[in-house]
Amino acid sequence: MTEATTPTTSPITTGVALRLHQVRRAFDSLPVITSFSLNVDAGEFLAILGPSGCGKSTLLRLIAGLIQPDSGTVSLSPADTKFQTAYVFQDPHLLPWRTVLENAALPLELMGVDRAPRLAKAHAALADVGLTEAESRYPAQLSGGMRMRVSLARALVTEPRLLLLDEPFAALDEITRFRLDVSLRSLWLERGMTVIFVTHSITEAAFLADRAIVLTGKGGIVKLDRRLNLPRVRNNDLRVNPQLALETQALLTAMEEES
Amino acid sequence: MRTALRKAVPAAIPFLAITIAIESLVRAGWVKAWLVPPPSAIFQTIVRDAPELFRALAMTSFGALTGFALSAAFGIAIAVYLSSSRAIQQAFYPYAIFFQTVPIIAIAPLLVIWFGYGLRTVVASAFIVSIFPVIANTLSGILSTDRALRDLFSLYGASRSATLWKLSFPAALPQILTGLRIAGGLAVIGAIVGEFIGGQGLGAVVDVARTQQRTDKVFAAVLLASFLGLALFGLINLLSRVVLQRWHASEQN
Fold this sequence. Notes:
The complex is a heterodimer of chains A (259) and B (253).
Chain A: E1 17-27, E2 30-40, E3 45-49, H1 56-64, E4 71-77, E5 85-88, H2 100-111, H3 115-128, H4 144-156, E6 162-166, H5 174-191, E7 194-199, H6 202-208, E8 211-215, E9 222-227, H7 242-258
Parallel strand pairs in A: 3-7, 3-8, 5-6, 6-7
Antiparallel strand pairs in A: 1-2, 1-4, 8-9
Helix pairs in contact in A: 2-3, 2-4, 3-4, 6-7
Chain B: H1 2-27, H2 39-48, H3 50-82, H4 86-101, H5 104-115, H6 119-143, H7 147-155, H8 160-198, H9 201-211, H10 215-244
Helix pairs in contact in B: 2-10, 3-6, 3-8, 3-9, 3-10, 4-6, 5-6, 5-8, 6-8, 8-9, 8-10, 9-10
C-alpha cells in the first residue's frame, strides 16, 4: 500500500449521518450504556476513546443494529439503504477454509450477489488494501497484518456508507499498525464513507480521526468531544508533527482525569 | 511413503519389545503357556486358522463399519437438529446422553430378541455405543461458533441455513472429526459385543475359543480386532487430513 498522496477524485460513496438519542443498554440488569447521545455527520471520521470495559464495543454493536437499545433511539440517515454498514473486529475473524478472495467476497455472497460480480468486487477491494497477490492463499498462510487487510477488504467490498471498527489494529506490531492507519485514512478520503473507529490508543485516535470523543469508565458518558485540528491527508510524516502532539496531549489529559 | 514409514517405526518398537519379552517369559517357564500363549503360537494360529479368522474379521469389519456409518450420519443429523434451539436441546439432549450411559453388555440380549441372531444385532450394538461422541462433539462444535462471525453473518442478512452451512458446520468440522475418531474405536467394541451374543464374526470366535480354553485363538481374534480398530482410526485420520489440510492448525506440518 502506498502512502497517502494528494486528495484524489470525488468520493465514490456518501456516508450516512448518525444520531443516537438517550440510548440505554444493560446486560443482565447491569447497565453498560446509560443515556448516551451522539450526533455524527455524514462522512465524518470519528474516534471513540475510553478505558477497557467502558462500553465502546456495546456502542458499536448498537450502531450496527446487532443489538437493540433497551430505550432511546439509534437512527441512520438515510436509513433506507440495506447493508450499508460494515464492521471490522479486533481480530480478523476470517473463515479459515476459504481463500482470501472468497473471504473478501463473503458479504456479497450472503447478500445474494452472483459469483462473477462478487469475485470481481472482492478482487477490487483486495487491490484497495494492497493484497491482490495473496488472493488464492488461505488465512493460515498469511501474516497478522495481511489477515487484518483481508478483514478490511471484506468490510469494504459492499461499499459501505458506515464503517465501524472495533480496535482493529490493536493486536498488530507497531510498524504494521502505522501502515494500516495510513491505508485506512486514505481509503476514507477516497470513499467518503462515515467511519467510527474505537480504540484505546490515544495516539492512534489522534492520528486517524477528525473528531475524537473520550468516554468515561461508567455507562459510556462523553467526557470530551474534540475536533482535531490536523491536515486532511495524513501519512507517517504527521507522526512527528508537533500539532499531533498537541492533540494527543488534549486527549491524554481527558483520559487521565478519567482514570 | 517415507514419512509413513518414519511414523510406523517408533510405534513398532514397543510392539516388538513386548512380543519378545512375552515370548522369552513363556519359554523360560515363568508364565504358563495356557494362561498367556507365546506370540509365536498366536502367529501360528493366525496362519493355521487364517480362512476362519479372516472370514470372521470380514464380518466384524462389515458390522462395525455399518454401525459406524449409521452413527456418523444420524449423529451429525441429530446434533444439527439439537443445535437449532435451546429448548430442543433441553428436551432431547438428556436422551442422547442415554446412549453413552447404556450398559451395552446388559442390553445386548435384548437386541437379539429385537433383531435376531446375526448382522442386525451387531450393527445395532455398534451403532448404540458409537453415536454419542458424534452427537456430543458435533453439537459442541456447532454451538461454539465464533460470536463475531455470527454477528457478521447477521449483519449481511444471512438466513439460518446459510449460517449453518457456510459457518457453523464447516467451523465444527475439526470437532466432528474428533467425534468420529472416538466413534470408530467404539464401533469395533460394540460390534464385538454384539457378536458375542449375536453369534458371528470375531466376537463369536472369541466366545467359542474361550469355552475350549484356546487362549491362543482368543488372542489371535483380539489381535485382529485391534488391527481393525487401528485401520478405522487411520482411515478417519486420512479423511481428516484431506478435509482440513488447508486450514486447520492441528493438521499443519
